[in-house]
Specification:
Blueprint lengths: L1 H39 L4 H31 L2 H18 L1
Helix pairs in contact: 1-2
Length: 96
């Protein structure tokens, strides 16, 4: 049972860390390309800003989803209940 909980904690950390790292790289590239676009055509700055903010929100959704899944693994872990059921089943078969 302890191994399920510890592996769930490691998986939660990897999900949150990987999501944050991926979003940080994606937002950095997005901001750089936005600045390049505005430097080439300053009159399109307003339109590019709106599209950049839209993509920034979509990119930022990935770590938010990862945080939600990590919270589910930490507080309502479905694997723990499955492991408990298997442990009770194994205990019942050994008693018979």
């Amino acid at each position: 049972m302890e191994s399920i909980i510890s592996f769930s904690a490691i998986a939660s950390g990897l999900m949150v860390g990987g999501g944050a790292l991926g979003a940080a790289v994606g937002i950095g590239i997005l901001g750089g390309k936005f600045l390049e676009g505005v430097a080439r055509q300053p009159e399109l700055g307003g339109m590019l800003m709106g599209r950049m903010l839209l993509m920034l929100g979509l990119t930022d959704a990935v770590p938010i989803i990862a945080i939600g899944l990590a919270a589910m693994l930490m507080f309502a872990n479905p694997f723990v209940t499955q492991g408990e059921a298997q442990a009770t089943q194994a205990a019942q078969t050994t008693q018979e």
